[in-house]
Each structure stands twice: as structure tokens, then as C-alpha cells.
User: What shape does this take?
Amino acid sequence: MDKVKLEAKTRDVFGRKVNKGRKEGLVPAVVYGRGVESSSLWVNALDLKRLLKSAGESTVIDLAIDGKDHRNVLIYGMQKNPLSGAYSHIDFFQVRMDEEIETEVELSFVGEAPAVRELGGIFVKSIDAVTVKCLPADLPSEIEVDIASLKTFDDHICIKDLKISSKVKIELEPETVVALVSPPRSEEELSGLEEKVEADVTKVEGVVKEQAPAVEEKKGK
Assistant: This one.
């Protein structure tokens, strides 16, 4: 696949001083790799957001540091601000284009399952991502899973059914189930679940069954 480009600048501030850069729309980052000296960087938050939206996380990036030092990298880790959702730190891992890498690729479920539309079933996906092994140039940004083949409750989509390049190896057993459609619950099953929930409520710690108030026996004079 084609590489995407991202500009970066050398960062020489650390600790609390980094917050000033964040307020100016920059994201602190670090790049490292096997036999590579780590470097602290700044990347533009808006550029990063655009890259992730268009290419995803599993993409080889041409990281241009200070406009001249080009590195082939993958996003190895991302941190976000729990309140704002803004990226607070990025880890880039430098790769060699002639060496295989092992990384996680997300599954993108597309289409519509006839077993859901026509039979009222419930779509169930067993996994959201898979670990793949390949050369960086062959790394897919995502793997599409067409669920239109799920026509009955007996149909399954397995790892062996995924449409990927022969140059990409998925590190899971071929028969591993990726997605299926389960039958809808019957009224009897739903009724049984409600009864079970009601019965279990009294077993929860702190829940006490209501009892008649005790009557204190009066003693005669």
C-alpha cells in the first residue's frame, strides 16, 4: 500500500512545559525502533487527525522530521485526554521496509446480513481486529469483512474467508469464527430471563425481604 506523509519537528521541551505546546495545537511524540536512537518530536494535532481519518492507525507513515529526515514508521501507541478526547502523546515505531512486521489491523464490517434483515437475527462479531505479519509495504490499513454471506443462522465467517493478499499472514487459526448471526430470543426465553433476574434480586447483598413488624409482648403488672 502507499505510504502517507506526516510532518514532525524536533522537540526539546519536556515535563510540564509540554502542555504549552499542546495548547498551541501540537502533540508530543517519540520515535524509536530496533537499533534506532529515540527522538522526541512535535506533530500537528490537526494533521494527525486528518491522517488517522483517511488512512487509519495500521499504516506505514513517511515521517519527515524537520523537513529532511525521513523515517518509515508505524503508530505503536496513542494516548488521549480522557476529558477532551484530544491526542496527548504518540509513539512511532521505525520499521525497515525489507523486514516483516507483526501488528494489529482492524476489521471493517460492511454490507448487510440477510439473516438479520429477513430472519430477525442478531449480528454477532467475535473479534474486532487481527494480528498480521507481512512486509511494511504490504500492510493493509484495514481488512473488510462483507457480511452479506450470512444468509442463515448456520452461516459463519471465519479467518479463512477473509479477502487478503497472499503476502499477508493472519496469526490466527483459519477456522476461527469472525462473525455470525444468532437467532432472536423467543418470548419464552425472554420471560425466563425476567423471572431469573427477579429471583436473583433477593440474593444480592444488602437486599432484605420485607417482613412483618415484630410485636413486643406487654408484660402484666
Q: What stands out?
A: The chain is about 15% helix and 40% strand. The two ends are 99 Å apart (CA to CA). Residues 8 and 65 are 5 Å apart (CA to CA). The chain has a mean pLDDT of 86.
